[in-house]
């Protein structure tokens, strides 16, 4: 697969024995740039907090809370240290049981009273049991896993989904083309004016359109994406922090440092020191 193909959407490798992807995610504080995939995604937080941004909304998840994101929906995440259950169901798999599932959007409740409802808690319970069954892989686990997953999906779809008529589906091809270009050229000099010229928009319109589709200003998104790469480089190697910033297109160091602290809750130097200390501990064990 080419680099360009990989930039189009999040690459997901399904668990071959069950036909979907299910795993326990353990992440340190971080940010995941706008992306999309050809799967229905359900994330249940076990520990910590994760913030999802999609379809002009921002959702903060705490332990025992979940989010459901439809296929092709553009989304990003910001998280503190967390442990979460993740279920990603391919459209082709789900379509055998629920036709036109790619047209489903989800309105999962986020207020405390509705989270306490029997339906919500049933989904939480099924997700937990399903994952435990898969981890243990006892004889007959495929039957038990599939049963719990199907129960979770049925309850989710019949309780919290909305089917969008094909004629009302928003064409996101333009914003996806723009995101692909940004992914591939993020470390270059990118401006709203320059991007508007390339994609034949008026700069003011592009700014409004991007914020409407992505949920944040284009210039802020550029910094978030660049800082994501900065963060990864800080975890490995000893290149000077200022050099790393420049390598990833951040020429305003003061602003970059300020936004880095907002995004990750600490400074680049502390991130590097913590990574180095963790590496030393691993080598000594």
Automatic annotation (TrEMBL):
Q: Which InterPro entries match?
A: AraC-bd, Homeodomain-like_sf, HTH_AraC, RmlC-like_jellyroll, RmlC_Cupin_sf
Superkingdom is Bacteria
Q: What is this protein called?
A: AraC-like DNA-binding protein
Q: What are the alphabetically sorted keywords of the record?
A: DNA-binding, Transcription, Transcription regulation
Q: Name one Pfam family in it.
A: AraC_binding
Q: Which PANTHER family match?
A: ARAC-FAMILY TRANSCRIPTIONAL REGULATOR, HTH-TYPE TRANSCRIPTIONAL REGULATOR EXSA
List the molecular function annotations (GO) for this entry: DNA-binding transcription factor activity; sequence-specific DNA binding
The answer on whether this UniProt entry bears the keyword Membrane reads no
| Organism (species) | Weissella soli
Residue ranges of coiled coil:
none
